[in-house]
Design a protein that fits this description.
Low-confidence stretches: none
CATH class: Alpha Beta
Structural class: alpha/beta
Mean pLDDT: 90
Strand order of the largest sheet: 1-2-3
Largest sheet: 3 strands, parallel
Number of helices: 3
CATH superfamily: STAS domain
CATH architecture: 2-Layer Sandwich
Helix content: 25-40%
Shape: globular
CATH topology: Transcription Regulator spoIIAA
Strand content: 15-25%
Number of strands: 3
Distance between the termini: 30 Å
Length: 96
């Protein structure tokens, strides 16, 4: 029996990303993941700034994904965003 490849779903996080957007982004992500059987959530973050709001949003998305058995990978993250993710200690959850 051949091993199946992981199923992934891509979520594009668009700028500008404001703190007030975070609850809605979390809810939409939960709804998106509830409708599919995915092993991985690919977050396209090429458009967002490297700031505390972005890290908060990504941590919330990682929480939503983990609760549904998905790993999270970042796609298109700037070096600055990756450095900030590492600095706040969530690089083990939010990998590129």
């Amino acid at each position: 029996m051949a091993a199946s490849s992981p199923r992934s779903i891509t979520l594009t996080v668009r700028a500008p990303l404001l703190r007030a957007d975070l609850p809605g982004l979390y809810e939409r992500t939960c709804a998106l993941l509830a409708g599919v059987r995915a092993d991985m959530l690919l977050c396209d973050v090429a458009d967002i700034a490297a700031d505390a709001v972005a890290v908060d949003a990504l941590a919330r998305l990682a929480l939503a994904a983990r609760r549904r058995g998905c790993d999270v990978r970042l796609r298109g993250a700037s070096p600055e965003l990756l450095a900030l993710v590492d600095f706040v200690g969530v690089a083990h959850v939010l990998r590129e």
